[in-house]
């Protein structure tokens, strides 16, 4: 079966992050006469009474797909994540914890076969029992129905129930990320889902701690606590109902939380951090995430094919100063292409990578450019970038190059134009580009997608050839089951990227939230889809 890596990786590209359009819905919360203007029940959105209704304002609009088999956006996932259970779910450190599964799977056939056992007595919200057949359906349906999530599961050769509570999953070949990512499949009821897929997508039935109660497209979603939730190891949720709205406009969200018109918002702009932190009735939260921004160099054509030119660019500006000036509350500089929150799981030597990176040294930058045969004395490369903080970084680089006798032309493109342009490999189109990436807790999501030769012209436009064995090692890492062996395979790959700089990791972007001070126990999860993390083995949010 041909792998569809294009789909799984392209959707992990981070768009500009800028507001697309202002959603009118958030401003309507807290209407009169017991209902909001959008029709959702009004139950103290400011949380100043004794209500257990939690209003959450998302930072971007949802795609309004709530069937996990087809849903492919983080903001719909934030909703259905409270309605469904996963076979495994993300812990606080991005590690997978058994949920519907009773424990770790038995692994056989050199990492090709996984034997799962699931809890007995789990019921979906319609009263049907959750069985191994439902788990098998959840693994197989994205591929069988050719949804956008197919590439997440197309390494699975078969998924067969042994009985109602045991499942055997066979892979075509060992797949390293399976135990760290793929097992987090969300479980859907096969019969209810396949009976009417369209209806299920907007009125889903899960087995999670909340039921899907009401929905108005592009306006709101309401969930209600399910009092018969099966997981006795988890406390009953304190929050009785949850209303999701979306407000793409940064200023609108900030206004809402300051006015007490919502209980919590996601996505705090850096410039508003101090304002909210200074509010008496607002608390701010953040967590490192696996999302990061990077500067990539065209290694196919132009001056940046010379690694010394790439090092000169890295010497020419101070990344740490830039981040401190533009994103001190919402980002941290990086040293390598594996995000720190992922590295907490893997333990790659970040400090050593940091020492290998070219430090800010404009004199060394000028000397390297002067000595390079790949650039002329009046070299002014093109940098393409989305708007926002990445455009600011591109301008900073251009300014610093100008100060040492060179320069750069910054072209700000919309996301679609940028993706089309950076894949050409043509130096007349770009010699550098700035983009972002997010993935899971496995290095494969960052190394294969952004550096393997098969992704050239698809997910990356640096076209880096690498040393002998560079691309083979990346491919070997994803088809090796033993995680210790994978570490040994990946470590020299990361070191080569830091030394040769086909791309320079720039900075991580944190997940941020703000809540009213009446909200207790709210913590930001590193996985954006898991927010708001209202109930888990680690937290149980309440309103005071």
Features:
single chain; 544 residues; alpha+beta; seven-stranded mixed β-sheet; 17 helices; 22 strands; 19% strand; disordered N terminus
Explain the layout of strands and helices.
Elements: H1 5-10, E1 13-14, E2 53-58, H2 74-80, E3 88-90, E4 96-98, E5 106-108, E6 113-117, H3 132-144, E7 156-163, E8 166-171, H4 190-195, H5 197-202, E9 210-216, E10 220-225, E11 241-246, H6 250-258, E12 264-266, H7 270-277, E13 282-287, E14 292-297, H8 307-316, H9 319-327, E15 331-333, H10 340-346, H11 350-356, H12 362-371, E16 382-385, H13 389-403, E17 409-412, H14 415-422, E18 432-437, H15 444-451, H16 470-478, H17 483-500, E19 503-509, E20 511-516, E21 519-520, E22 542-543
Parallel strand pairs: 2-11, 2-12, 16-17, 16-18
Antiparallel strand pairs: 1-18, 3-4, 5-6, 6-8, 7-8, 9-10, 10-11, 12-20, 13-20, 14-18, 14-19, 15-19, 21-22
């Amino acid at each position: 079966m041909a792998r569809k890596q294009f789909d799984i990786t392209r959707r992990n590209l981070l768009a500009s992050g800028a507001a697309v359009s202002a959603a009118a819905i958030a401003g309507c919360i807290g209407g009169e006469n017991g209902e909001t203007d959008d029709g959702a029940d009004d139950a103290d959105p400011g949380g100043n009474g004794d209500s257990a209704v939690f209003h959450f304002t998302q930072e971007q609009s949802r795609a309004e797909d709530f069937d996990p088999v087809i849903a492919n956006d983080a903001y719909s996932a934030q909703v259905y994540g409270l309605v469904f259970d996963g076979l495994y779910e993300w812990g606080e450190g991005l590690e997978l914890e058994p949920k519907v599964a009773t424990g770790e799977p038995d692994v056989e056939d050199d990492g090709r076969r996984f034997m799962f056992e699931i809890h007995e007595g789990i019921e979906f919200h319609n009263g049907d029992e959750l069985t191994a057949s439902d788990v098998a359906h959840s693994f197989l349906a994205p591929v069988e129905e050719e949804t956008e999530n197919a590439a997440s599961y197309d390494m699975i050769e078969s998924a067969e129930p042994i009985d109602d509570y045991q499942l055997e999953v066979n892979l075509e070949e060992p797949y390293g990320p399976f135990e760290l990512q793929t097992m987090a499949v969300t479980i859907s009821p096969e019969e209810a889902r396949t009976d009417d897929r369209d209806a299920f997508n907007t009125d889903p039935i899960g087995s999670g701690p909340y039921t899907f109660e009401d929905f108005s497209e592009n306006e709101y979603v309401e969930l209600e606590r399910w009092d018969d939730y099966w997981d006795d190891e988890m406390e009953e949720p304190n929050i009785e109902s949850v209303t999701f709205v979306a407000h793409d406009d940064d200023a609108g969200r900030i206004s809402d939380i300051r006015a007490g018109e919502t209980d919590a918002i996601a996505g705090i702009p850096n410039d508003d951090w101090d304002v909210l932190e200074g509010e008496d009735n607002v608390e701010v939260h953040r967590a490192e995430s696996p999302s990061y921004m990077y500067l990539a160099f065209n290694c196919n054509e132009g001056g940046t094919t010379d690694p010394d030119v790439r090092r000169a660019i890295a010497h020419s500006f101070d990344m740490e100063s830039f981040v401190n000036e533009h994103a001190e509350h919402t980002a941290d500089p990086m040293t390598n292409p594996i995000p720190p929150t992922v590295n907490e799981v893997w333990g790659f030597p970040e400090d050593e990578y940091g020492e290998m990176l070219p430090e800010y040294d404009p004199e060394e930058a000028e000397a390297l450019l002067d000595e390079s045969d790949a650039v002329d004395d009046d070299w002014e490369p093109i940098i393409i970038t989305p708007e926002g903080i990445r455009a600011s970084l591109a301008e900073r680089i251009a300014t610093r190059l100008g100060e040492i006798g060179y320069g750069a032309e910054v072209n700000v493109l919309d996301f679609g134009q940028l993706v089309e342009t950076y894949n050409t490999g043509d130096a007349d189109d770009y010699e550098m580009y700035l983009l972002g990436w997010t993935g899971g807790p496995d290095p494969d999501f960052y190394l294969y997608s952004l550096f393997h030769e098969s992704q050239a012209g698809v997910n990356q436009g640096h076209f880096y050839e690498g040393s002998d064995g560079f691309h083979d090692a990346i491919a070997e890492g994803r088809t090796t089951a033993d995680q210790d062996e994978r570490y040994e395979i990946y470590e020299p790959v990361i070191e080569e990227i830091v030394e040769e700089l086909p791309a320079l990791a720039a900075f991580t972007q944190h997940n941020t939230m703000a809540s009213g001070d009446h909200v207790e126990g709210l913590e930001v999860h590193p996985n954006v889809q898991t927010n708001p993390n209202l109930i888990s083995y680690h937290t149980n949010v309440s309103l005071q």
